[in-house]
Amino acid sequence: MVHNLTAGEKALLNPIFKLMLPYSRIVCKVNTDNIGGSGNSITPKGTPYFSVSVYTPDFSTAGLAKQWVFVHEMTHVWQYYHGQNVILEAIGLGIQKMGNYGASYAYALTPTSNFGDFNLEQQASIVADYWILTKGGIPQDNLAKTPKLADYTSTMKDFSAGGPPHRPSLDDYPSTW
């Protein structure tokens, strides 16, 4: 199961990512090898691999929970196309969290938080949580008891200044992914 972004998916992403993603280059795949576990979605080298339980041929028609994962993984695509080495950062987080990778997602925003202050999973969760708030949903990883859209103003402004996508100058990821 593989698909290029649908018109509906592009419409879902555009309010958040605007011109910061290479929409025509993104191909959604399934994590059939269960890398990271059977329920895990990953995005190495700018290509999202969704867990079998999450993948759908058009995320714009899925429920909010699957769309949240979709936006989260698209933030990893954004990171790749804005020069972050997502694979090395993920390995570093695994080591830092002593194998408890799930502890990498929770975050606390302050009025002066910058997007770059957060690790790659927190960044992806911030964008996905902001998106779900705009849809009337509940953020997954914000540590605040009652998060509001206004809490995200500074951080999302910083994120939005990321500019257009570009391929990283040093493409040192494994070629088999």
What does this structure look like?
- The protein is mainly alpha-helical and 177 residues long.
- It starts with a strand and ends in a 17-residue tail after the last helix.
- Residues 169-177 have low confidence and may be disordered.
- α2 (64-80) crosses α4.
- A three-stranded mixed sheet has the order 1-2-3, covered by helices on one side.
- 35% of the residues lie in helices and 5% in strands.
- The chain is built from five helices and three strands.
- It has one domain (2-160).
- The chain is globular and about 40 Å long.
- Residues 157-177 are annotated as: Disordered.
- This is Type IV secretion protein Rhs.
Helices, by number, come to: 5
**Numbering strands along the chain, what is their spatial order in the largest sheet?**
1-2-3
Point out poorly predicted stretches.
Answer: 169-177
SSE series:
EHEEHHHH
End-to-end C-alpha gap: 16 Å
Secondary-structure blueprint of this entry?
Layout: E1 2-4, H1 7-17, E2 27-30, E3 49-50, H2 64-80, H3 86-96, H4 120-134, H5 153-160
Parallel strand pairs: 2-3
Antiparallel strand pairs: 1-2
Helix pairs in contact: 2-4
